[in-house]
Design a protein that fits this description.
single chain; about 425 residues
Length: about 425
């Protein structure tokens, strides 16, 4: 592991809302939210009233009556996010972009050209502000985990450099929810055993964490609490899976809700898989119920798939199995699909017509190939006339979606 603080984590501040304020100067200094039925992003002025991303719009208006909702300029988000990451790339080729608005960078090899890591971070912040017009917070530390925490502490529009000699002193007084991998559920679990800060977590016996969170999660968080993070910057990392999810409010667990939602999700995922020629073997679904409990189930197929209808049918079968195992749960709030074990190089293997029960879901059969041909035709039409020009069955009729697909696509990793 590195002994010097040369890892930078740069994160654009309230990115989507800040872009809207940049595009429309009349919105600057005012509480705004991107979205409508659901808050997709909030400005710092809105966050001061408790408005947060993912919050229902009605609740947000109750917290902040003067809140202004604006529609998203998705193409501008992509252009400005790319421009900010390009500024970081002007200093080092070791840049690992982890989302549209944040990235890691290792500047160990370029300090002789641009100064100390702190000076490089300061210059990056100045350039992003002057050339793009957006604020960006930067954390500098010895490890990726600590650099990301430092950038969160630096917000908004700040810079925090963690000295290796005092990193545990810096880290251990911070709230545990700043750690990578500690979401609301894990935070609540840790609070039940009195773990509120990272220091508390570091002092908690390993067996206690493993019993509470499971062996893998317990071991990982214990290591990060002591800043043991050997991960290096990976500048050309391809995603190992493709996924999509849809928050649907509180809807009955019925076919009229489940089928079109899963077909829409499968369409989004399979289109990406075909575009990159990366079919996958493992399909995983997640169902979140009205009480916010979640259940996942997966299956690994004999052959990798990237056909929309095959993926939708496999996912529907998995969801039905989950519902059968939880008969008391009558209401769902979220459905998600992911495909993993993606193939890097794959050739379709033709299959004889043996009239197998799952023949329609096998890509090498006559039916499977017909489905593939239909998908390719849909892809070509969309490439020419746009995504909404054609669709699949119920999903093409316009299911209710609180979060626009354009917004979700901004978070999708390169396959």
């Amino acid at each position: 592991m590195a002994t010097a603080a040369t890892i930078l984590h740069a994160d654009l501040d309230a990115f989507y809302a800040s872009v809207e304020q940049l595009l429309d100067p009349s919105l600057r200094g005012r509480p705004i939210a991107v979205g409508g039925g659901v808050v997709l992003a909030a400005s710092y002025e809105a966050k001061a009233f408790g408005v947060r991303g993912g919050m229902p719009g009605r609740h947000a208006r109750q917290l902040c009556p003067q809140l202004t909702f604006v529609g998203g300029h998705f193409k501008d988000y992509q252009l400005l996010g790319d421009a900010a990451i390009k500024v970081i790339g002007d200093f080092t080729p070791l840049v690992e972009r982890i989302s549209i608005d944040e990235a890691f960078a290792d500047v160990a090899g370029c300090t002789h050209l641009f100064g100390t890591p702190a000076e490089i971070a300061k210059t990056i912040r100045q350039r992003v502000r002057m050339e793009i017009g957006l604020g960006i917070s930067v954390g500098v530390a010895r490890t990726k985990h600590l650099a990301k925490i430092a950038s969160q502490v630096a917000k908004p529009d700040g810079l925090v450099v963690v000295d290796p000699d005092t990193e545990l002193e810096f880290l251990h007084h911070l709230p545990v929810e700043l750690m990578w991998g500690v979401g609301p559920v894990t935070k609540a679990q840790l609070a039940e055993i009195g773990v509120l800060t990272i220091g508390h977590l570091a002092k908690t016996p390993g067996w206690s964490l493993e019993r509470l969170l499971g062996p893998a999660a317990g071991e990982k968080l214990a290591a990060l609490a002591w800043n043991r993070d050997p991960r290096e910057i990976k500048s050309h990392r391809r995603a190992g899976s493709a996924g999509a999810q849809s928050a649907i409010g509180r809807k009955p667990a019925e076919e009229r809700v489940i089928r079109p939602t899963l077909l829409h999700l499968a369409d989004r995922i399979a289109t990406r898989l075909r575009a990159k020629s990366r079919p996958g073997r493992t399909v995983t679904v997640r169902v979140r119920f009205a009480d916010l409990s979640s259940v996942t189930r997966s299956v690994t197929l004999d052959a990798p798939i990237s056909a929309t209808m095959i993926l939708a049918e496999v996912a529907e079968e998995l969801v039905r199995a989950i519902l059968a195992d939880h008969p008391d749960q009558k209401t769902i709030s979220l459905l998600a699909i992911s495909v993993s074990h993606l193939e890097e190089h794959w050739d379709l293997e033709l299959e004889l017509p043996l009239e197998l029960q799952d023949e329609a879901r096998r890509p090498g059969t006559r039916i499977g190939m017909a489905r593939w041909a239909a998908d390719c035709a849909v892809d070509k039409i969309r490439d020419r006339f746009g995504w909404d020009a054609i669709g699949y069955g119920p999903a093409a009729l316009g299911i209710s979606r609180s979060v626009p697909d354009e917004f979700r696509k901004l978070a999708e990793k390169d396959l």
